[in-house]
């Protein structure tokens, strides 16, 4: 089990794109990765740091599954949305 919370969103886009797949390399067969990060729609500006992430930025690498995807509202003033995604490496 790997838990990733708020680290990816602190990285600039180029580093984030390279780092994201590395987290999956830590998983054994049947292992899970739980990711929590600030959320934004692709149409919203990417202001940061931290940079809220789009769902498109969080598509798992080939061979891994996004088992559940939730967008949760943490607060309303100011608006704060988070992704909670459980990924799995097949057994």
Question: What secondary-structure arrangement, pairings included, does this model have?
Answer:
Layout: E1 2-5, H1 13-24, E2 32-38, E3 65-76, E4 79-88
Parallel strand pairs: 1-2
Antiparallel strand pairs: 2-4, 3-4
Written overview of the protein:
The structure is a single chain. The protein is mainly beta and 91 residues long. The chain is 13% helix and 36% strand. It has one helix and four strands; from the N terminus they run βαβββ. Strands 1-2-4-3 form a four-stranded mixed β-sheet, with no helix packed on it. The longest helix has 12 residues, at 13-24. The two termini are 13 Å apart.
Summary, kept brief:
The protein contains one helix and four strands; from the N terminus they run E-H-E-E-E. It has one helix spanning 13-24, and strands spanning 2-5, 32-38, 65-76, 79-88.
- Overall 3D form: globular
Helix-and-strand structural type: mainly beta
| Assembly state | single chain
Strand order of the largest sheet: 1-2-4-3
The parts where pLDDT drops under 50 for at least 5 residues are none
Our count of helices gives: 1
Care to count the β-strands? Answer: 4
Q: Let me know the average pLDDT.
A: 94
Strand content: 35-45%
Order of helices and strands: EHEEE
Gyration radius, in Å = 13 Å
Question: What helical percentage do the residues reach?
Answer: 10-25%
Q: Span from first to last CA? A: 13 Å
Question: Which short descriptors sum up this protein?
Answer:
4 strands; 91 residues; 1 helix; 13% helix; four-stranded mixed sheet; mainly beta
């Amino acid at each position: 089990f790997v838990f990733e919370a708020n680290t990816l969103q602190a990285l600039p886009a180029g580093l984030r794109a390279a780092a994201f797949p590395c987290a999956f390399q830590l998983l054994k067969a049947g292992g899970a990765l739980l990711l929590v990060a600030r959320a934004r729609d692709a149409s919203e500006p990417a202001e940061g740091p931290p940079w809220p992430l789009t769902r498109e930025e969080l598509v798992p690498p080939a061979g891994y599954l996004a088992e559940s995807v939730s967008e949760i509202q943490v607060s309303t003033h100011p608006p704060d949305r988070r992704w909670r995604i459980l990924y799995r490496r097949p057994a």
